[in-house]
Design a protein that fits this description.
Number of strands: 0
Largest sheet: none
Helix content: 40-55%
Oligomer: single chain
Radius of gyration: 30 Å
Shape: elongated
Distance between the termini: 84 Å
Mean pLDDT: 77
Number of helices: 2
Strand content: under 5%
């Protein structure tokens, strides 16, 4: 399925679509940002600086909360 995914003709079509969508002025800027992101991603794996898994914050219920009291009904006149 992945054979020939990045053939020269496919890459050319992707480049032309990106050129139409982003324009010629923003394309080098996007390429630079993409290159820096890939480089940073590679460097984090080389140095072993994988981000630790995010744990949800632990919340504890306060123990001094009393249950709400319902006022007694008033007799009707």
């Amino acid at each position: 399925m992945g054979e020939g995914l990045f053939q020269p003709m496919h890459l050319l079509v992707i480049f032309l679509i990106a050129l139409v969508v982003f324009g010629p002025k923003r394309l080098p800027e996007l390429g630079k940002g993409l290159g820096e992101a890939i480089r940073g991603f590679k460097d984090s794996f080389k140095t072993g600086e994988a981000t630790p898994p995010v744990q949800p914050p632990t919340t504890t219920a306060p123990t001094d909360i009393k249950s709400p009291t319902v006022p007694p009904e008033q007799p009707k006149n």
